[in-house]
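Intended use. Records such as the Peptidase S1 domain-containing protein entry shown here are meant for training and evaluating sequence-to-structure methods. They are not intended to support clinical decisions.
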Amino acid sequence: MIINRLFMLFILTILGSVTSLPLNSTCESMTPNSTCMNIYKCPLALSLIRLNRDVVKEMTCGFDGTTPKVCCPVSGTSIIFTNLTEEIATRKPSKVTTQKIEEISQESKVTTMIPEINSELLPSRKICGQVAIRDRIVGGLIAGIDEFPWLARIKYRNKFGEEYYACSASLITNQYLITAAHCLTDKIGKPISVRLGEWDEQTERDCQKHLQDFICNDKPVDKNISEIFMHDDFDVKSAKKGDIALLKLDEPIPFTEFITPVCLPSTEYVTQQDYVLDSSYWTAGWGITEFDLPSPLKRKVSLNTVSSDICHTIYSEIPEEFFETLICAGGVEGKDTCSGDSGGSLVKMVTEDYEKNWYLFGITSTGPKRCGSEGMPGIYTRITSYMDWIRKTIRR
């Protein structure tokens, strides 16, 4: 994740005597009129974590629980750091690093321009789709407590005032989630909020055993939905094309170790990885299990790709041209997304510029009446077909 537990212990050990300032208070670190805020809300601090922790240490203005607060300069401010580390000047930078850090001389003198808030529509690879720190239960049915941290549950309210969870969604920015359009029809109920950071719906705070220790997350976070954007191509009668929608939260949500966005395929290289035969995706959710009961725990499953030609043969009622905007995967007995997983993520890890990230390539749309049926793959909305629409909608 962005800041792992080892780094947290490092920070806590070194900064135990730091005077804590209130959140959003004015402070001075590298520039006057900075603001003391959660480290996850400060783009500069996040970009410096992997480059020079001493600088981040100097920025610290206390803690919010166990999460560091930093004195974050106003966006758009230009700051010059000298004598960072030789590593910064000599190592091969990623594309993201190259865009944000300009080498001034061979003496490791670096100018960093703090990005304007919301200047980029989508989070950088330093933030999105981070690989879980602990590799646990590989191949198992139960997801790790810090796996799929972008996954959210949508809460609905029916005409009788009853509230319940049904579909899933994926966090793609600090204020937008993506889901299936069919999850937002009156048939299910009125979507009112989302829950992020959930692992076990039976407990208020979740803990998972790891070796001889327990890993516990923070309490789930509930955020109200303020706006819904459904794709114009979606037809509730067929629900096969344009089955994609965005949810806007009423306020931004801070990123944590257990709540982070998934990356979207925004580069040419990653886009080319979206529907490669003989490759596999991962998906997760709280859907119906093999016992026809909803799972209280976040579960995961690996699904292999199925060619669109084969998929069209199986689902001949779907017009052939629709398959350009769909991905087919699964079709192995007992391995599939089931009721309750609709709107969830179909993801794959991609390495670009030496960085590994999880990318969202599909949204759970539809499939056989009996999920996990042999020879009956699931159908997923293909994200790469809708990237222009996603950017345009978020830019509104």
